[in-house]
Amino acid sequence: MISEAVIKALKNFVPEENICLQEPMAAHTTFRIGGAADCFLRMEKEEQIQKVQRYLNLVGIPWFVLGNGSNLLVDDEGFPGVILQIGPKMKEITVTGNRITAQAGATMAQVAKAAAEHSLTGLEFAAGIPGTMGGAVRMNAGAYGKEIKSVIYSTTYIDKNSEVKIANKLEHEFDYRKSRFAKNKDEIIVESIIKLEKGNKAEIKQKMDDDKKSRKLKQPLQYPNAGSVFKRGNDYITSMLIDKCGLKGYNVGDAYVSDLHAGFIINKQNATAKEVLELIEYIKKKVY
User: Fold this and answer.
1) Which residues of the chain have pLDDT under 50?
2) pTM summary value
């Protein structure tokens, strides 16, 4: 539990209306799973994040940065610390020439839409990614054979000493579904600049529409989920292996392997994190 003294101190940095106690994390993840966080803060600006991070590190309270919660499974017991949400209150997007500056809380759908409206091509693949800009950079999100690393120009972040730094493209240390920010969990992404090319607006929008239709046909979007559960292999398609094991529709409680796409685990009603983890382990053993 967070003490009253800590809550009082946090009110010096964050407006009281942006502080929630015992906040159910199921309400903040696309899996719709997760117990309560001791304290949940809706962040609004860079300076605020710096002050909160510095204070929490000083008093030794664990913290975690949350975006759209689209690639996340939260324990049924919740989170014994402070959640820093960089989301709807930090979603500003600015377009200058062929560059887009997006705050970490802007969704990829919003950023891709801005690119399309300004006839900028190169980000169509990200239009259906349900995460935020910060989350996409942190895990080098990708779809349809492309990744965010192909368009990133630079990222502004807060380092472990609560100082604002800027990483150039190479300094992101991108790899498959990871970056320096996934490895250095005490670095907080504030905003990123992506560099695109001029294109044909009609063609860009058509590509985005086609990808959207494809997702609806191939992915179980009608159920709460966290996207593809397993990474792809170098010489095999993971979902095909799961399918060949006859695991489509297999369940542990309300956690199911999707009938539509075997790479997805879906929450059919009231799945728990424990059920999802048990299902993941069962799939791993069965495929092995």
Assistant:
1) none
2) 0.93
